[in-house]
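Worked problem 6 (solution included).
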Amino acid sequence: MHRRGPVAGCLLAGLIAAHCSVNPYTHRSQWVMMSPSYESALGATAYRRVLNDPDNRVRTDAATVRPVRRVIARLIQAAHRSRFADMTRAFEWDVSIIDDPDQRNAIALPGGKLIVYTGLFPVAGNEAGLAAVLAHEIAHALARHSAEQITFEALHGARDDVRLPFSRQHESEADYIGLLLTAMAGYDPREAVRVWQRMQSADDQPPPEYVSTHPSHAARIDFLLRHLPEAWAHYQAAAPSPVAELPLLADGG
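Solution. The predicted structure is:
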């Protein structure tokens, strides 16, 4: 991964230098014209909107909720020991599980609000796989990617030729930080590769990378494999987390 000096990028910010920060893992300069508290307020509003949507059914049964909360608790503990410890303490964490078998996805909103869709369970497979996906999403929130994306589009516009590569950069950054968080939480980081291999198999017609906000599955798998040795060192130093298969979900909750 290319790593710039932490000061040089900020000096280029000019009038918005007061809003420039440096990612503590990738040392990438970030320009953000939004306070963390305001960003968290936006996340909380979006979270309430999702939960209040009558089309969204929130799962409350223990078989569904317990493994998700167990994994998130371990990831948050790892984040408290990470270079994002201050941000982790500032967040007001919460999670809800939405019953939607067609959504193989999870979302971490600014401020620590998480949404997990039940369609993620089959492709995650077990708690380590779930941890890999949730750690990636948590990394987006901790790195303030939403606020940075808003700032970027305000400065550069929403043209796809500049917006999409920037979004893919965020995805790779979240992959890297999420892989480390997964390992620090005591989950085998190799499961992240297996999850994306299953995603690749389940995705019949993925869009070409150049028109997508995400790297291709193959590029993502290759990226994770390159960073596995670093993550493995964290995993060996961590207390292993118990891993259970995720439940086969039925309708209801």
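Discussion: Confidence is low (pLDDT under 50) at residues 1-18.
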